[in-house]
UniProtKB/TrEMBL annotation:
Lineage top rank: taxon: Eukaryota
Family: Belongs to the adenylate kinase family.
Family matches, as InterPro entries: Adenylat/UMP-CMP_kin, Adenylate_kinase_lid-dom, P-loop_NTPase
Organism from which the protein derives: Cepphus grylle (Black guillemot)
Residues annotated as domain Adenylate kinase active site lid: 116-151
Alphabetical list of Gene3D superfamilies matching this protein: P-loop containing nucleotide triphosphate hydrolases
Molecular function GO labels: AMP kinase activity; ATP binding
UniProt keyword Kinase, yes or no: yes
Coiled coil: none
Name of the gene encoding the protein in the UniProt record: Ak4
UniProt signal peptide: none
Protein name in the entry: KAD4 kinase
Length: 213
């Protein structure tokens, strides 16, 4: 049987590596990863059209349940606070145990986002600098074409980052005032991850070691 263990949210600007961090947390600690971006893709039917503007750039670990027998049949609810209003709405649903904030230099984010291409149907992300597809412009698994989201194009990136900074500041201050905010700074997810792993290991026992990630 699954037991309720942790409710956490991972915050970060576009391109900060939220998805990667959440996937590693889910794998290492047996938690369910709920991605707002994936929810939107599913609600849009997985179509390959233009990525909707205003798509929440927050991923979280919702429901706080370990995977176990029958886990696939449970659908934990998820809320992802991108604005102060959303954070206050989440308060009415559940009480968070901790919030992880990823602080990545904006110049690094600009480079990451401008080099990012996606497979629209699945949400798989490639970076042409450090995680390119086997064949340029083609998804590794399906052979379908990759696209660059309109808001990942260089002209749109700076505006996205400014918008995130303005919206996220009061959310971050709220969680900081409650003593549940844990901030991690750096330019590489692989270097940030061990500190995130150590933090969570102090809250709940991992199911796999850090070295297995």
């Amino acid at each position: 049987m699954a037991s309720k263990l942790l409710r956490a949210v991972v915050l970060g600007p576009p391109g900060s590596g939220k998805g990667t961090v959440c996937e590693r947390i889910a794998r290492s600690f047996g938690l369910q990863h709920l991605s707002s971006g994936q929810f939107l893709r599913e609600s849009l039917g997985g179509g390959g059209g233009e990525w909707p503007r205003g798509c929440p750039d927050v991923a979280g670990l919702g429901g706080g349940e370990r995977r176990g027998p029958g886990a696939a049949d449970r659908q934990p609810r998820g809320c992802f606070p991108r604005t102060l209003g959303q954070a206050e709405a989440l308060d009415r649903i559940c009480e968070l145990d901790l919030v992880i904030s990823l602080n990545i230099p904006f110049e690094t984010l600009k480079d990451r986002l401008s080099a990012r291409w996606v497979h629209p149907a699945s949400g798989r992300v490639y970076n042409m600098d450090f995680n390119p597809p086997h064949v340029q412009g083609i998804d590794d698994l399906t052979g379908e074409p990759l696209v660059q989201r309109e808001d990942d194009k260089p002209d749109a990136v700076a505006a996205r980052l400014r918008k995130y900074k303005d919206a996220a500041k009061p959310v971050i201050e709220l969680y900081k005032s409650r003593g549940i905010l844990h901030s991690f700074s750096g330019t590489e997810t692989n270097k940030i991850w061990p500190y995130v792993y150590t933090l969570l290991s102090s809250k709940i026992p991992p199911v796999i070691s850090d070295e297995e990630n």
